[in-house]
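Sequence and structure are kept together here, with a separate record for every protein. A complete record is shown below as an example:
=====
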Amino acid sequence: MKPSYQNLAKQALRDNQLVLCMGLRQARTPDIGPMAASCGFDAIYVDMEHSAISHDTTSAICVAALGHGITPLVRVPDHLASDMSRVLDGGAQGVIIPHVNTADQARAIIAACKFPPVGHRSVMGANPALGYQAIPLADNNTRLNDDTLVIVMLETPEGIANAEAIAAVPGIDMLLIGSNDLCTELGIPGQVKHPKIREAYEITAAACQKHGKFLGVGGIRGDLELQTQLTQLGARFIIAGNDVNYLMNAARQDAQALRQASAAI
């Protein structure tokens, strides 16, 4: 029987389509996936690096998203192989790994995220990412190897300098520039239009193009001009914002409007 589950975001990237992703830091209930899908997002990522969210809650969010046509991803806190395999076993269709600086680190990530012969991920068998379908183990492993989206974040000058070597690692799907961390490391915090960060975007874009990898960008929420420029540069994965920003922006606008209306009474 043909598996009914597919990593729709990865397929869209292969078709050269733009994938919009929402970050989750405060959401703790499974309905956030269909809510994000209803808003027009293609993917969500649970941010385990910058929140206290548990593996259990992360899995619940991922499993719920699978049934609503939105791709669940997880940003793990560090490079622990156990974190990567656990979130994938829990239903994530991809992992985002922060602070990747070298090709050796990228190779270790592939070893943790892919089954043999590509990597050394431990075999779970029936998996929520494939709807717990009863399919042969070889087919299960092959499908998950192909469907899992492995995204490494470049967030330091060292990572940018090694962008081409990292992009050359087999199994890596995307180089994602963490603009805020990179700006801070470069001594220009918050200056996402600075020439230094522009150069980093261009270096990474060239590395992705040379080795057939996807380019992703994050940390540029609300700057439509810059986001458009980066899609023209080749970016096909944009972290448009996160639940905290969206909630606070909408709540702030509502509160201000009500204050202004009451002042006129």
About this structure: Residues 8-263 form a domain with the TIM Barrel fold (CATH 3.20.20.60). Strands lie at 19-24, 43-47, 71-75, 94-97, 149-154, 174-178, 214-218, 235-242. The CA atoms of residues 126 and 133 lie 6 Å apart. The chain has one domain: 8-263.
